[in-house]
């Protein structure tokens, strides 16, 4: 961190808004550098120019946090299910730290080293085994001197608590973010109880990311806040939702939607949806406001634009944007120029262009969680027989 | 062009499939480098790293053509409606050529210098004046030695013919692509007649781009092909459609949809829609198959994957993709692994997640075209009074 | 016919608007008196009070024509596919004539005896055999002295011509209405050519009924009118469409929609849709304007209300209606009273309340028509083996 | 009641299923005999043949209860808002009793005399004044010797309790049904508390009718049942929901939907939706299962068919129906015959045919209830000035 930069807690304690970045795995999947399925971040080492560019776009859009592109970057996940890699886990973690630092130093952003849930936990390994995995990633973050740490995308608060316990040993601020909705974690622990556990474990910032749309995520963080306050504790709050409309999700989130992960396009939020999200999050008392899967740089820019008055400035990328569509004043067609106004975009319900599509799906979740045989993770690729068995199971549902 | 590379006509004459790239202005608008409204490409000079990265992503996805990022890069457009720029038109055209060449030389791609329709034509300037504008861009393309030329995004075949007449003087192959649908150009000239005019003017490749969804564009190019063949002429055919579903467009295309340009998200095509498009275009005898607004690198990859058997190879980015979702075999959840099969994705009708949105809109077009006072383009920014007048007009509709 | 009543041709020759009735089989199916599948009208004899009441409701709504409830009332159809009946065909035809006459005489309505397409034609019987069937029904209509005759719901113009040839022998006016859309009859004869054939055979009134939504039907009748006029002939025109939105039908109409016949509810037209239909039909020069399947009395009333100025009066049932919702002025809730105005209802796009339903279906038609083995009609009920075979065929599509 | 008929409590005490009828005002509005807005039942006296026929259709469909067509038949409502009538309230109430009795005696049905909420309550009249209104109706029911009494369509439990207190004096069984959803009555009293109040007031049967779709109504009655059981009381339960999908309603129900009352068509339930409703209601322990607005005879028949095994017989109207579409075995087209099976209809999500309609609306309710000036009911018709003021209010929302 440059000596002049304020740390994450300094900012939050001062009541500042901290804008997060967007989801890297989904954005880079669309750009051709991440494989859906494994969702691993080897591109940090393989294609640094692509990762660097995405960091820059989010920085330019207003992000104050460059999360290291280390999602699912634990050794057990990297080796999982037949995913062959040229680089070691440590090399990828290091490369990701370097890229985040390089871009963070081009602006007013901090570097956050992140860990996420592990296949080992799902496969019922012990806390000692799982913690060793987090520790190995932490060693890289410490060596690379990230500014703070994020425990993110955990479906089970138990595992997240283990991660917090490991990460807090580094003496840096720790944020903890679960991928849960209002119904709580996969073991049925409520958002309020989850938050209390995480704060007690040592997290200074708690919240949720991924799995649900913005309004659902804000609602869940509100429940966390109520839980923390009811327990007489204190924390800061973060939210990094999907940029997808998910009115039809069950408790396991968008993974269970039939469209996941290759046909989610029609659910994507517009920039105007983002304005509403940013305001709602701010009004809920959340001050670390970012995004996850589906967020493109312009989504983050919309968050920064909505909160421009509170923050006192616009992001760099707003030079290529007109607030509420005002840039359309320069459009060729007069009827498009007539759309250069806030009330037009604020009230528009966009058509889907999809007369054969319904607005809601029936989630597909089989309801398994940690402990169920079908969830034991394996290193070798899924065999044809296993796949055939899965297809049969899906037919019976 | 590297000595070992075959030219565009050599490829097409040999029956090869040439895969185009996607639309730069919309993709870069989302990344924060292009302003919707003016839609000008000054980022080629201002932010070359962002433009270079997008070129690379399309190359990696399978593109054989790197179009210079020179859309709307005529001097009259760059000065239009209060758009202030640091770079001259020539500087931007040159920078765009350099970036396209740099990335083209990293793979099997050609550089195509492109011109597009001008505000001067809309403002009823003479053919001499309009041609001088194209000539100025052509001088840069000649100096930078692009591999071929594209006349693209023209709503009036008359102007496109003028552009072909200028560009063919350089002695390089010329492709001509209108942004029209089955109803023809803005003066009511049918697709077949448009194509005949373009071929007679000297274009070796004709087709359409932008404004309509893939199936509508393929249908329009078929009509062009029929016209050309009926006239006893010969040509190659190209198609570069939107990556948006537009069942509700009128003859002026997606510009008139109420969602243009800031709320088009729910209309985005999935990769599976792209498979169908690529096959349909191929079956129609079109061999230059690419994309326009809304295409992201993964859309081009899907085109390349659908045509992999015909071409004999997969694109580089397919290393991060499983054909028809097979990479999901490595997904954590068993119910998502059960989706790792073609029939699942091929038949899925994705939900929109938007219970308050209809599937179709009523286009907003006021029906003006060249010659109407409201379409005269001006250099100064639209005034408040002008905007107010436009809002009043839009209310009365 | 009462001595003071003008005949159908007198009315049409004088330029009067003649309002038809709605579809009896579908309305009575919902009331519990008709069986979907056979769609036969034995209720005329079995439950005369139900049929009489429906006649009265249409009369009260503004109908000038009481069609005898004799749809599919040919002997070959009545015996078809295991349908056991207490009454003979002649008894049902006679009962239907009596009911129509009884109610017609309560107001300003004419009685029209109707015949419809036969299983015999589909089973490739000769013109002689098919004509004998129509003759038997005509004998009843002659005995009961109906006011005019309607040849209606024919998919093949050839069979309709046969019917016209039989019916015109009675010396009464003959109207001929096909259930076709803009693509023409099941043998591919265009609407214009169909109309010419029917006029040449002796029909004084031609048009279409059933199978498509109002706007599609009006469009088809326009094509008929153009054909007749181009051939230098003269005719009057009629239209009796579905009260269902069918944007997704193929040439065989709503029969092929997956929702036919038991899940068509969400497609039902509102009364406001009917206003638009009535105006469109009137503007197209059609003067015999009625309805078919899906029309309830209030739909016919809306037609009569839209054309009240041209006709000079409102129908009786308008005493229980306020034009354009004005009766809501008497509603309890003030926010509902605020809806008592034309622009509210005219512009409303009603929500479907169905988040899991798409707006369009993929028609199911297998494309068979007269001559295909699968279309040969049989008297005995479909066997289990036949059904099983059909299910297998439907799976393969 | 015929001596051999069992009373309503005998039946329910014996665990029998009692099937109600459908909503008369909406069904008769479509047939041309009721005016939307006032919604008053003068047709019982004016057009007895129409009311009798509807009773017969419900009887034939399986109804065991003929509710007197006396909805909104209190003197204060009949005089309300400029509604001019030929018959007195007493005459209408009497005519309605006679019609219900006549048809009930044609089958196994009981006559239920019904009262509904009054404008006097909304206008803040005293309990004494309101009770006098109910008493006047009760006098007719007593004279006409109905079999039991229903207090139905009350938004405020307070007024319903007053009605129960009046009606129980007659010594006949009293059922009490509110038009509320899970959020409770318009004063915020929960369904459980409402039910307790009604039982304590003397109702032997409690439940809900109208305002919400079947699943929401069943859910609300479940909450009532829990409340009653928690209070240590006993009751029977009834449910008579809308035949409309209303996922988007707020606590005031379908009145607030923008489509109410003239554009609700796309929301109509299919017969297959009714099967699910009947099963759900039965499983919830509800034994008096009927319908309200939107129910046509075939909807009630579907309820009777779903519960045929439990009841031991099919309704009369099933002679014109095939269970689960089996009558389609007799359809002309083989692809329609292929639909003659339960799984086809059970799983079909019907398309709406409405590409310009969304699936959900935003309710319009202004949130007023008893006590608000805007809800004071008046006898004279709403004036133009009042309407203009309402339109202005609706614009501001």
From TrEMBL, chains A, B, C, D:
GO molecular function: betaine-homocysteine S-methyltransferase activity; zinc ion binding
The keyword Methyltransferase appears for this protein: yes
Cofactor binding note of this UniProt entry: Binds 1 zinc ion per subunit.
PROSITE patterns: HCY
Chain residues that bind Zn(2+): 210, 292-293
SUPFAM superfamilies xrefs: Homocysteine S-methyltransferase
Region (Disordered): 377-397
Name this polypeptide is given: Betaine-homocysteine methyltransferase
Organism from which the protein derives: Cyprinodon variegatus
